Amino acid sequence: MIRADADEEVVTSEEIAQKYEVTEPIVLYWSTMKGFPEGWPSGPGRTLVRDAAEVDDWLQVNLPVHWAKGQDLENPYGLPEGGAKDLVSLADIAQWEAKALGRQEPVPTPTLRGYLSKKTMPQPDRLPGDGKRPEVLDRMWFRKTAYDWVNRPRRMRRQKKSDAQAEVAPAAGQPSKRPSGSGQAPRVDVDWIVATYGVSRPTAGSWSRTEGFPKEGDPADVDAWVRAERPRSWAAAQRRAGQGTQASAGVSADHQEEPAAAPAAKAKDGPDERVELALEEIGPRYGAPKHTGVSWTRVKVKREDGKVVRRAFPAPLRTGPRAWASAEVDAWVKEYRPHVWAAYTGAGPVLANPLPEGDPQDLLDIDDFAEIWGIATRGEPLARETVNSYHNRGQIPFADRTPDDGKTPRVLEYHWYRKTVYDVITSRRGRGNFEPRTPRA
Question: How many CA atoms lie less than 13 Å away from 435 in the CB half-sphere?
């Protein structure tokens, strides 16, 4: 997803490395440091991109040496203007060197004297008693000599692990835990959410941007939020940790039963009272195409850690020709296709999960589209290929943004505004129940 307030340009890690003349592993290291702009997946292969202006601002504050390499400026550090032959002292150079290093206090003059003795700093252009005019009483340098040295290409020493350890994100698959007897809490970020709750990075990023998500990042607050707002993910994480609610109640996975079938509701306009439904009648009964009903009959049971989280489509009453009990089909559709059932009964749009909060102008890629659509309507993401085929057939609106369309922020693949995605989700009666739309020119 690209935020609505994103800058005009986004950059990949490779582009960051090229601009600031470092290697990609160095950029990866920067990403573990405090405050480095968070990235989001975009484009082919889900390449991680970041806001270019945010990266530049962060480097200017935290790593000005590397920041200067990315500026096409003769005076990137903003050193005072003056004549090339102006004479400056060692104290002046100490202040300018500190500015290049991003320090508030001048570099100690003994440090600069060490550079002089090692000949890593230019020798003075003027010395006391050298017979030149004007006479000088101490070693002096021309402004150009000093500026050339301050603006020199630099090699930045890597930050010590002890300095950055508290800011480094935990590796995926290794959830952070509060050390025993320590008051230091783990850093709650996208990687922590992925590792703790076993969700994808796009899902974790979506959670962190949802209205009400704990912004302070306290693990206990985050866990409480996930338990209340994403109970299925929370329960799955507890089961993986051996602390599931069933286990705590003394009920083993071997004794967990499938969810009971919900009683069928009667449609507002009084649907037909047929007891049996033929294969070709299932979809049209709910206002969906025939092939939609056929695809439902192929849905298999889904289990997580031995517990049934989705029942298979009811078995037919008989074969030759196949026929299903309408009450059983009604119960399955009501539970696993609530948006279709709502349209069938006239109850209005009903979603399995609420749509995430966000700016209507946020840009969502096809993976975001598939995830939000699937979770909202059935509790699990749609396949990327499904949404892609809908788009190719013109059955959903053509992408609002395309690569190289000349607009900002730059996108690397098709993107839709959040409003467009939500309009699609809330306006559809059921899967496949729409007329092909004419793609935009």
Answer: 2
* CA 27 vs CA 11, 12, 72, 401: distances in Å: 12, 10, 20, 28
* CA dihedral of residues 176, 221, 350, 400 (deg, nearest 10): -60
pLDDT in tens, 3-45: 666 555 778 888 888 888 788 888 888 888 888 988 877 766 6
Enter the pTM of the model. Answer: 0.35
Q: Tell me the C-alpha distance between 43 and 18, whole Å.
A: 19
Q: Are 55 and 94 within 8 A, CB to CB?
A: no
Token representation of residue 402: 């395309």
Residue 52, token pair as written in the block: 């270019």
Tokens of 33: 């440091």
Structure tokens that stand for 160 in this block: 């010590």
